[in-house]
Amino acid sequence: MNRVSATRALENALRRVGFVYVAGVDEVGRGCLAGPVVAAAVVLHPEKAIPGLADSKVVPRDEREHLCQAIRRDALAWAVGSSDPSEIDQINIHQASLLAMRRAVLALAPLPDMVLVDAFRIPHLPMAQRGVAHGDRRCSAIAAASILAKVTRDRQMLDLHERDPRYGFDQHKGYATPMHLEAMARFGYSPVHRRTFRPTTLFDTID
Fold first, then answer.
1. Which of 85, 124, 72 is nearest to 103 (CA)?
2. pLDDT tens digits, residue range 146-168?
3. Paired strand residues for 132
């Protein structure tokens, strides 16, 4: 995927028609076999540009870390929400992703008056919102949220690796890589694995 810098065009247009706090929201970890799904919400400062914001998937790890620091320092507001594996198993990954995003939005202070969401609309938000197709590539606030969520979740997966190094969470962050599938076939599920979500390549013998 080629890297394209996100812009503030949509956020600026919304501010011109009267919205003051425009938040971008995104989540990471939706397709993983282990660990939480993590969402972030970010309201960028209109007078403090953060160069280099783009979809977290195309930003190198070291640069993501630097951008995350800049977002935390310069944004008007930011917040993170998550849903853990047990909750994912109870309500399914789609609903858990929406819940994590809603938690992130509602943790912002001040609350936004407009929310821009990558692809989805979030149920039960008490403010205006708009789903933006490919928002993490197009919209700076959503790109910032994707970076904040990605860095936060990666750090959590490193912590989980420290507690239980058998699965190699430091390498694959919970995604269904051959290394991860081999470890699951050998050791079975850990307490941080999602038991209701598995790819077709995962053997039925894992329990």
1. 124
2. 999 999 999 999 999 999 999 99
3. 118
Domain boundaries, the chain: 9-164
Q: 9-164: CATH homologous superfamily?
A: Ribonuclease H-like superfamily/Ribonuclease H (3.30.420.10)
CB 158 within 8 A of CB 169: yes
**22 sits in which H/E element:** strand 22-28
- Separation of alpha carbons 45 and 141, rounded Å: 10
Residues 172-190 as b or e (16 or more Cβ within 10 Å = b)? bbbbbeeebbebbeeeebb
What are the C-alpha distances in Å from 62 to residues 58, 143, 151, 168? 12, 16, 10, 20
Secondary structure string (H, E, C) spanning 47-111: CCCCCCCCCHHHCCHHHHHHHHHHHHHHCCEEEEEEECHHHHHHHCHHHHHHHHHHHHHHCCCCC
CA distances from 103 to 14, 16, 122, 123, 180 (A): 23, 27, 10, 11, 29
pTM for the predicted model, two decimal places: 0.93
Q: Under DSSP, is residue 3 helix (H, G, I), strand (E, B) or coil?
A: coil
